[in-house]
Structures are given as structure tokens and as C-alpha cells.
Amino acid sequence: MKRIEQLRPLSMEHHLSLVLANKAIKTAKSNDKAKIEVLCKQIAQEFDIRWEAHFIKEELSLFAIFENKYRAKLIADAHKDAELTAFLREQHNQMRTMSADMSDGRTDQLEDFGILLRDHTRLEERRLFPLISELFNAEELHRVAISTAHDA
Question: Does the N terminus or the C terminus of the chain have fewer Cβ atoms within 10 A?
């Protein structure tokens, strides 16, 4: 799917999240306890640096503009995606909890984490990004680009 330039940095990060999601699912299904433990530790160690930073970028840019400017109108129009960012925030919070659990040594959620990460990423790419591309004006898209650049 062709992505508008302003969302490309997030889409590149989404590619990495899909790689991790698939690895988590595959590793969990392998039932190899050592590999599961290693991957859970890796996720827990990298979460704040990579994924939490990604979530914050989305929440403070895309989600904030969407919720502050467009959500009420979409609700009034009974648009199916009016509550999309609220749902995506909830998923972010679920992954934060799962990562914290992995940091505490829990490994039983690895497959669920992978499935959630995969489904969440696809939802953003397939529903949120097209909606943002349609709704946001040039200034809003510029603000998103600035706040989600790789060095931001």
C-alpha cells in the first residue's frame, strides 16, 4: 500500500513491529523454553527504547490531532472509526503491561503479545493511516512528520 510521505517513518517502524510479532508467535509456538525466555527478555529490554517511544510518538501526534479535531465530528456522523484511537491506546496499554510482565520474568504471554502487536500494527496501517491521510490537512501532516521523524 502506498503511504503518504509524512507517515513513512511510522510505517518503517511498523515493518519492524511485524517482524517482531511474527518472531514472537513462531518462538512461542516452538515451545523452546530457552528461546522463549531469551525473546521475552529482549522485548522487555528494548521496549522502552523502541516500542514505548513509538507509541508515544503516535499518541502525541496522530492520536492527539485526531481526538482533538476529528473525533467529535466522526462520532456525530456515526463513523465506524470514531473510537479507533481510543481502541489503539488501549492496545498500547496492553502491550505496555505485557512488556512489564516479561520484565518480571513472565513468558506465558509471548504468543498473545505477538498476536496483539501484529493485529495492532495492521489496524494502524490499514485503517488509521488511510483515515489520517483523508482527514488531516497539510499543516497537521507536517506536524506529524516533524514529531515522528526518526531523530525526533
Answer: N
Q: How many helices (H) and strands (E) does the chain have?
A: 9, 0
Listed residue (149, 135, 150, 152) closest to 63, CA to CA: 135
For cell 529490554, what's the residue?
A: 45
Q: Measured between alpha carbons, how far is 41 from 32 in angstroms, rounded to an integer?
A: 14
- Where along the chain do its domains lie? 5-147
Domain 5-147 has CATH 3.40.50.20: no
Report CA torsion sign: 110, 113, 115, 118: negative
What does the alpha-carbon distance between residue 88 and residue 67 come to, in Å, rounded to a whole number? 12
Question: What angle do helix axes 33-46 and 84-103 make, rounded to 10 degrees?
Answer: 120
- pLDDT tens digit sequence for 13-56: 999 999 999 999 999 999 999 999 999 999 999 998 899 999 99
